[in-house]
Design brief:
It comes from Palpitomonas bilix. InterPro entries: PA14/GLEYA. By secondary structure, the protein is mostly beta strands. It has one domain: Jelly Rolls (Sandwich), CATH 2.60.120. It is 0% helix and 54% strand. It has no helices and 10 strands. The strands form 2 sheets. Strands 1, 2, 4, 5, 7 and 10 form a 6-stranded antiparallel beta sheet that branches.
Length: 115
């Protein structure tokens, strides 16, 4: 498999940061969910400088958080992900009262940095 540019590899795993922009359809609170394949994976998600999702100490396969968008403009988003060993997988979704649960589509920036 091909890993994103800027990915750090470990003896049994890897870590990466996905950076880009997200554009909400409505000005309202959204609930974000990150689903991980295994409990040894880690994830953190920021919108701007606000931490929205955090499962950095491990042990969870799903984490949720909320963020209130005050505009429908593009917002910076950063998702940090680490897989220490075994199967890897990350699915980030969002939902709001006007929008059903769906994959949180983002527009990537030109470079991804490592975590």
């Amino acid at each position: 498999s091909v890993l994103p540019e800027g990915t750090r590899t470990f003896s049994k795993g890897y870590g990466t940061t996905f950076e880009g922009y997200i554009k909400p359809e409505y000005e309202q609170e959204y609930t974000f969910s990150a689903v991980l394949s295994e409990t040894d994976e880690r994830v953190r998600m920021f919108i701007g400088s606000v931490e929205v999702l955090e499962s950095w100490s491990g042990g969870a396969t799903q984490v949720t958080g909320t963020y209130s968008f005050e505009s429908t403009a593009l917002h910076d988003i950063s998702i940090q992900y680490i897989n220490f060993d075994g199967t890897s997988g990350l699915d980030v979704q969002w939902e709001a009262s006007e929008v059903g649960r769906e994959v949180a589509a983002t527009t990537p920036t030109s470079d991804a940095s490592h975590c």
